[in-house]
């Protein structure tokens, strides 16, 4: 037999790669945003780091300086602007199916709705919770026990802390308590973005997903509608700090988000120009891979559309006028306003959006 001699293969011409700018990335659930598995960040914290977190949390409660309001009160004795003391007042604790599909999944998000807030948004969609002191008072340990119940009884995909900016010390203590008692699901910090850098430093290592809502951009707008002139400046620094901690939003193969940053923006009637600026900020100063939910469900609520009251001269009595408060936002947003913000986001280079599915199945 003739000995075998390998034939030389003809070399194929090299594949010409298109410039990166011409690539069309249409799938957010793909490397490098796909995780084989995930372990919550708090599970990797050492006992020494946990003890230091606890010590700092107690110190902040004695001199409340975490929130940008910096009231400086001893919350074991009195309250600041949020009207909440050393315990957390919780309105609702339950599996929730009103969040982004990648957050709620099939079993729901283990949502904890905290009463009160450090903002006073005139249009607040949850004003019955955030503007009123209703609910049960829970110590950090009791709150942590509820996290465990949500995990064991509700089989939730995560613990979702909603409007927690004013109870960060209690939240930190609750996560550490739950960690020691078997908590194993990711923690979501669902915030208005009116957070201080000191607050986020305390949460570093405890939170897996940051879910801020960047509302408005101009100081005049935030002073009038949110009662916080420094809101936008604070939100910019907070969101950049969140990105530095957890990076871009990542998923396991089941389509459930496990770690990273997800930014919401509620499109406001007549304020789409500020939404455009926010989209450019996210693309240029946070990440072009930032996962964004451009929300269109604004509706007049809270103080919007309520009759104005006017005092009669020389009398303490009030009369109700035909005028309404915040008349400029006393309407729903238009499709054109929503499209304007979306187009600005795409033009800025953002591409990972929370869009409804193009099929009749479940959106993951």
TrEMBL record:
Positions that bind [4Fe-4S] cluster: 117, 121, 124
Cofactor names: [4Fe-4S] cluster
Domain of life from the UniProt record: Eukaryota
Pfam families reported in the protein's UniProt record: Radical_SAM
Cell wall biogenesis/degradation keyword on record: no
InterPro entries associated with the record: Aldolase_TIM (IPR013785), MJ0674-like (IPR040085), Pyrv-formate_lyase-activ_prd (IPR016431), rSAM (IPR007197), rSAM_sf (IPR058240)
Transmembrane regions: none
Cofactor note: Binds 1 [4Fe-4S] cluster. The cluster is coordinated with 3 cysteines and an exchangeable S-adenosyl-L-methionine.
Metal-binding in keyword set: yes
GO MF: catalytic activity; iron-sulfur cluster binding; metal ion binding
Ranges of residues in domain Radical SAM core: 113-226
Keyword vocabulary terms for this entry: Iron, Iron-sulfur, Metal-binding, S-adenosyl-L-methionine
PANTHER family per UniProt: FORMATE LYASE ACTIVATING ENZYME, PUTATIVE (AFU_ORTHOLOGUE AFUA_2G15630)-RELATED (PTHR43075:SF1)
Name under which the protein is recorded: Radical SAM core domain-containing protein
Source species of the chain: Thyridium curvatum
């Amino acid at each position: 037999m003739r000995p075998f001699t390998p034939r030389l293969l003809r070399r194929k011409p090299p594949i010409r790669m298109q410039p990166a700018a011409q690539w069309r990335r249409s799938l957010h659930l793909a490397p490098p945003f796909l995780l084989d598995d995930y372990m919550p960040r708090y599970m990797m914290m050492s006992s020494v780091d946990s003890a230091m977190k606890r010590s700092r949390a107690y110190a902040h409660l004695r001199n409340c300086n975490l929130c940008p309001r910096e009231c400086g009160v001893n919350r074991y004795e009195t309250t600041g602007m949020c009207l909440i003391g050393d315990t957390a007042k919780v309105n609702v604790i339950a599996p929730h199916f009103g969040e982004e599909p990648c957050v709620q999944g099939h079993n729901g998000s283990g949502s904890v709705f905290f009463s009160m807030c450090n903002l006073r948004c005139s249009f607040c969609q949850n004003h019955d919770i955030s503007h009123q002191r209703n609910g049960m008072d829970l110590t950090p340990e009791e709150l942590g026990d509820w996290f465990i119940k949500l995990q064991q009884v509700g089989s939730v995909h995560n613990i979702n802390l909603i409007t927690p900016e004013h109870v960060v010390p209690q939240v930190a203590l609750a996560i550490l308590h739950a960690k020691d008692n078997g908590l194993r699901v990711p923690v979501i910090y669902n915030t208005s973005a009116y957070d201080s850098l000191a607050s986020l430093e305390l949460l570093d290592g405890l939170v897996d997903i940051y879910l801020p809502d960047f509302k408005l951009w101009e100081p005049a707008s935030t002073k009038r509608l949110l009662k916080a002139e420094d809101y936008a400046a604070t939100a910019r620094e907070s969101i950049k700090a969140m990105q530095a901690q957890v990076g871009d939003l990542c998923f396991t193969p089941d389509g459930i988000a496990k770690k990273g940053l997800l930014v919401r923006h509620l499109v406001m009637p007549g304020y789409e120009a500020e939404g455009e600026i926010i989209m450019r900020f996210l693309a240029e100063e946070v990440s072009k891979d930032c996962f964004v939910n451009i929300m269109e469900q604004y509706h007049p609520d809270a103080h919007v559309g309520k009759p104005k009251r006017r005092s009669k001269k020389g009398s303490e009595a009030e009369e109700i006028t035909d005028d309404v408060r915040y008349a400029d936002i006393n309407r729903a947003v238009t499709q054109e306003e929503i499209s304007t913000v979306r187009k600005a986001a795409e033009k800025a280079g953002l591409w990972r959006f929370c869009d409804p599915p193009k099929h009749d199945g479940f959106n993951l």
